[in-house]
Amino acid sequence: MHYTEIIFFGCFIVFIVGILMLDMLVIDKEAHEVSMKEAGAWTAVWITLALLFSVFLWFHGDLVHGINNFSDLQEVARRYASHLKLDPNDFEGGLEQYRHHMTISYITGYLIEKTLSVDNLFVMMMIFTSFGVSKMEYQRVLNWGILGAIVLRFIFIFLGATVIAKFDWILLVFGVFLVYSGIKMFFERDKEEQMDVTAHPVVKFLSGHFRVFPRFHGDAFFVRAKKEGQDYEVVGKHRGGHLYMTPLLVTVIFIEFSDLIFAFDSIPAVFSVSLDPYVVFFSNIFAILGLRAMFFLLAGVAARFRYLKPAVCLLLLFIGVKLLIHEYVEIDAVWSLIFILAVLSVGIGASLLIPEKKK
């Protein structure tokens, strides 16, 4: 890792964490039920920030890798975009070419992650319903879930990039897995998902190894309590008792686990458009940051987009095939972006224009 990459990456993390802390500790300090208007405003804010970052990459993307001369550019392109035809006599032209490739890859990765996130929203809704979480606490759980997701994505993405650099055949494994996921999702698209949280391994593990309080206690993650017979009494610090985790903390851990499973689809998918771990990370993080607002925005209307799931299946198939044939056929990043936009437009348009048949 080049020292300029470390500096840029550090500044990016500080910026993102700073925004999240401002959001969690100042703007959304008081627990409240998020309205459609507030969710829409925050969705616009996160999308704007993501697009502004793409503008930065378009004009100054070379700063991420600290490219100062043609040798630097050639080395970075060799690692992350070997298909680019760079002219040694035109450093500025090559630099512009790489910046534009980087930006298109970032936008494509962002769209892929956003699209796949829609399916994850349904899982989140089921988790909140299954645990009986109050709508007032949705935001708090999602805030901490996002922080955990950032840490998990960092580990997954840079570990994945290291593995790909050493064993490039792993991309074929990703391709097969994504094709399988797309086919499986298509045949199970109408299956009504159910979740029994009490029987889930995560809940069983937490209940077996930690003290879990049997009910919610406001927005607290931990309470100090005494067990008297079959009942529990919350007590002060000086009255003894034991520390218990509340169902709200169990919900956060469960959300993190679901994101871990979700990442097995989404991260290989974004690696199909760019091998640059920084581009993959940036696109993932901006998509995740907007996930909370999108949850509140789409929670009430997500079921109306019934053709979006088949569109996601088609995207997974396309991305998987793209990885399987990448050694023989190089699909340009621009054409990938156009295809993804077209599939999403058709899926959303069909959902809105074709009336659902009455059952």
Automatic annotation (TrEMBL):
Keywords carried by this UniProt record: Membrane, Transmembrane, Transmembrane helix
Transmembrane segments: 6-27, 39-59, 141-163, 169-187, 248-271, 277-299, 311-329, 335-354
InterPro entries (alphabetical): Integral_membrane_TerC, Integral_membrane_TerC_rswitch
Major localisation: membrane
Source organism (scientific name): Segatella buccae ATCC 33574
A GO cellular component entry from the record: membrane
Record has Membrane as a keyword: yes
Highest taxon of the lineage: Bacteria
Cellular compartment(s): Membrane
Protein family membership: Belongs to the TerC family.
Keyword Ribonucleoprotein recorded: no
Membrane topology: Multi-pass membrane protein
Name of the protein described by the UniProt record: Integral membrane protein, TerC family
